[in-house]
Amino acid sequence: MHIVDRRLNPGGKSLENRQRFLRRAKALVQDAVKQSSQDRDIKGVLEGGEVRIPLDGMNEPRFRREGGTRDMVLPGNKKFVEGDLLPRSGQGTAKSSGPGEGDGEDSFRFVLSRDEFMDLFLDDLELPDLAKRKLADAESEGLRRAGYTTSGSPANISVNRTVRLALARRVALRRPRADAIVRLEAEIADSDEARRIQLTAEIDALKAKLRRIPFIDPIDIRYRQFETVPKPVAQAVMFCLMDVSGSMSEHMKDLAKRFYMLLYVFLTRRYRHVEIVFIRHTDRAEEVDEQTFFHGPASGGTLVSSALVAMHEIVRSRFRPSDWNIYAAQASDGDNSGSDADAVSRLLTEMILPVSQFFAYLEVREAGGSTFDTSDSSLWTLYQQLRAAGTPLSMRKVSERSEIFPVFHDLFQRRRKQEKVP
Amino acid sequence: MTALADRLFEGADWDFPTLQRIHDACEGIARSELGLETYPNQIEVITAEQMLDAYSSVGMPLFYKHWSFGKHFAHQETFYRKGLMGLSYEIVINSSPCISYLMEENTATMQTLVIAHAAFGHNHFFKNNYLFKQWTDAEGILDYLDFAKSYVAQCEERHGRQEVERTLDAAHALMSHGIDRYPGKKKLDLRAEEKRAEERRSHEARAFNDLWRTIPTGPTKSAETLNIERRRKLLGLPQENLLYFLEKTAPRLQPWQRELLRIVRHIAQYFYPQGQTKVMNEGTATYVHYRIMTRLHEQNRISDGNFLEFLQSHTNVVFQPGFDNPHFSGFNPYALGFAMMQDIERIVSKPDDEDREWFPDVAGTGDVMAALRDIWANYRDESFIGQFLSPRLMRQMRIFHLHDDPEESAGIRVDAIHDERGYRRIRRELARQYDVGLIDANIEVVDVDLAGDRRLMLRHSVLKGAQLNEADAKRVLQHLADLWSYDVSLVEVDDKGVVLKEYVVNPRTMAAVA
Prior knowledge:
The complex is a heterodimer of chains A (422) and B (514).
Chain A: E1 2-5, H1 15-24, H2 26-39, E2 49-54, E3 65-66, E4 70-74, E5 85-86, H3 91-94, E6 107-112, H4 114-124, H5 129-136, E7 141-149, H6 159-173, H7 178-189, H8 193-212, E8 223-230, E9 235-243, H9 250-270, E10 273-281, E11 285-288, H10 290-295, H11 304-318, E12 324-332, H12 341-352, E13 358-364, H13 378-388, E14 393-398, H14 405-418
Parallel strand pairs in A: 9-10, 9-12, 12-13, 13-14
Antiparallel strand pairs in A: 2-6, 7-8, 10-11
Helix pairs in contact in A: 2-4, 7-8, 11-12
Chain B: H1 2-6, H2 16-33, E1 41-46, H3 48-56, H4 67-82, E2 90-93, E3 98-103, H5 108-128, H6 130-135, H7 141-159, H8 161-173, H9 190-206, H10 223-235, H11 242-249, H12 255-276, H13 278-298, H14 304-317, H15 333-349, H16 353-358, H17 368-378, H18 381-388, H19 391-397, E4 400-404, E5 412-416, H20 423-433, H21 436-439, E6 443-448, E7 456-461, E8 467-468, H22 470-484, E9 488-493, E10 499-505, H23 510-513
Parallel strand pairs in B: 1-3, 7-9
Antiparallel strand pairs in B: 2-3, 4-5, 6-7, 9-10
Helix pairs in contact in B: 2-5, 2-13, 3-4, 5-13, 7-8, 7-12, 8-12, 8-22, 11-12, 13-14, 13-15, 15-17, 18-20
C-alpha cells in the first residue's frame, strides 16, 4: 500500500475551468456585477461576493422525460392499504422530488473572488488595459536594509562591517603590528652581534606570521542585505462632495457614485488606509453617512461654497495636511448661484487646493445629453478659470458611465509627475 | 495495559504511521475473515479544497478542461462556503491501484472508517463485480484520462478553444446516449472464420436434401425494401449509441472531432457500471466497513469512545427518512444496500420458514461471506433487488407502491403495500426503478435519407406516456444537428406506433462549413 500526501500539491486545479466558465458567462456575470455594484457601499466594491446569473445559455441540456404515468416505490408507509386513492392536492407528501436539482434550474448563484469582481467591475467602466493593470497591481515595493550576509554583489560590500571583523580576527590571532617590526628593525641598528641574530630571527618569525594572517581575509567580508517591502504606508482621505438639490437625478447620482467608487479603488491601491468623508450640500452643507449621501432626500438652493467651507473645517479639525493625503471629488450638475462665485474661487485657491493632492470636478448630465448643445454652466466656467492658473484641478463633463475614466487619466498623469518629488 | 498497547490510535489525532497501522489492521480482517480480494491500495491525503476540485471533475484526479466543470465548481464552492453542504468523507476511484482520497480534517476514527469503506469495500466490488470487469479497464483508466487531457489541450491549441468547446458541449449533451449497452460481437480472426465456414459446408453436405429446393419462400421483396435493408445494415442501424454513430458516420466531422466524441463516449462508458450498481456498491462498502469496525472494536484495537464516534456517523449514513419526511429524496442507497446485506447475512445464518420458501438457494447455507461474495460478483442493482429483497425487509421499511396515472382524476392509487399480495409486485416495481434500460429515454437512430437531403432520423419510443421535455430536447437536437451538419428529425412514438410529436432541427454551422 502507498500513502501519498497530496496536501502540498498546488491547489486551484479547478481554477482554469472556473475561468473558462466566467469567460463564457461574461456578459451575464458582468450584468450581475453591475447590478450588485449598484447595491453596494463604496467600500464594498473591493470585497467580491456572491452574484446570481440566469442559467440561460449556461445550461447543459440532456434528453429528459416528463409526464406520463409514474410508478413510485417509497418507504415509510403508515396507514395506506392497497387500493387507497390519495388526492393529488396533497402532492407534497406523495411526490418524490429529484435530488436537489430544482433550485439550480432557473438561476445560478456563485461567489466571485475579490479580484474577479474587480476585473469585471473595471471592465464595465471600459478602462483601458494599462490603467486596469495599474489599478489591479499590488502596491509598489521598496527596498529595506535587512542586516548582513556573507555573500552578495561586490557593490554591496559593507566596508565598515568587513574591517571591524578583520580587526577582531587580527587581534584574536595576534597578527603582529607593522610598527612592532619597524621598532625591532630600528633596534638591530644599535645592538651587538648575538642580539642582532636573535632580533633577525624574531623579525623573520613576525614577518612570516604577518604573511600567514592576512589583513583582510575572505571570511571577514560582509555584504549589506536588502529585502523588498511595500512602500511606506501613507494615509489618504477622500472627500466626496455632491450637490443634492432637486436638479440631480438618480442617473446623475449613479454616475457620481461610480466615480467615487473608482476613486476609492484607486486610492486603496495606493494608500493602506483610506477614509471617506461624505459632504452633501444644497445651500447648506452637512457631513452625512453614505446611505444618506446617495439616497437621503434634500431640497433647497445651491451654494457650492458651503460645501467647501465644510470641507475646510473638517480638514482643519481632523485631517492635518502633513499627515494625510487629501483627495476631493465633487459632483454637481453645474448650477451655482452667481453671487457665490467669488467665495468659491477664494476658498479653492486659498484654502483647499493648496492642501489637496487632487481635486476632481465631475459635471454629471442626463444620459444621452449631448456635450455640445448646452453652454457651459456657471461652475464649469469658474473652475475653468482656476484651472488656467495651474492648480491641481481636473474637470470633466460626463453623461455616460464610459466617460468617467478620462478624469482618471488626468489623475494618473499628474501622479507620475509628482512622484519624482519625495 | 497490554490491551492499550494494541490500540491502533488514541483520541482523534493521526499521522502517517497511524494510517499504515490502520490499513494493515483492516487488511488483515478483510483478507482472512471476509475473504475480500482487492486491487492494491493507494491512499492519498488531501485538503478540503482539493476535495472540491475533485468533485467538479467527476471525482477523477485528472480530467480535460471544460467550462461546465468550472460551473459545477463555482456552484459547489458557494454551497460549501455557506455551510449548506458538507463534503463527503472520501472519494474512491476504480483504478488499479485503487486510489482513495482521505480528507485531512477527518479524525482517526473517520480515517479508519473510510479506509475500511473505500479501500476494501468499494475496492473489492470494483475488482469482482461482473459489470466492472466487463466494461471498465481499471489498469488503463488513468493513462487514458491523461491521454484525453493532453489530446483536448492539443486540439485547443491547433483548432482554437471555441471550436473544441463547441464539439465537447455537443458531445456532453449526448453523453447519456453514448453508451454501448450490450457487449458487441467479437470480430473473428481468419482462422476461426475458416473453421466456421468449414463447419457450415459440412453441415450443408450432411443435411442436403433436394426437397428443400421445392419449398415456396413467400413473396419476393421489392427492390426498394431490399435497398432499405441493405442501407440499414451498412450503417449498422438501428443504433442507440448516438455518439458512436456520429463518430463513425457523421459526414463532415474532422478527424479530431471524431476523436473527441470517442473520448467522451469512453468516459461515459467507464461510468456506466457505477450508475447501475449504486445500491450494491454502497451496500457492499457499508457492510464491509461495519464488519471491519466491529471486529476492530472486539479485538480492542479501537476504544469504546472511538467506536461510539464511528457508530454515530455510520447511523447518519444509513438513515432512511420516510416518504413524508422533509429530508426524503428517494431511497438512500447506503441504507437500502446495507439493510439488504444484513438481511442476507441473517437469511444465510439464521433463516426462518419464510426465508426458506423465498430464498431456497441461500437460506441456511451457513457461509455468509461466500454467499455475499457471490452476490457482489454476479448482480447489479436491478437483479439484486429483484432477487434478494425479502418480505421481512419490506415489512421493516414499510415499503409501498404508488401508481400515478394522470388520467385518473380521483388521485394517486396505492398499488401494493407490504402484505402477502404485495411483496412480489413491490419487489418487481422497485427493481424496475433501478433498471438501467428504463432510466434513460430510449432513443435510436433509425435511418438516414441518403438519397435525399441526408436527414438523420431518430425515434424515441415513448414508455408509459413520458415524453421528452421540449426545451431541452430542442437544445440537444440542435447540438446533434451541428455535429451531423444536416437536418435531424426526431419522432416520439408510443407503443401502438402513434406519432405523438415530431421535431426537425437544422444545423447552425452549415454556412460556416460550406
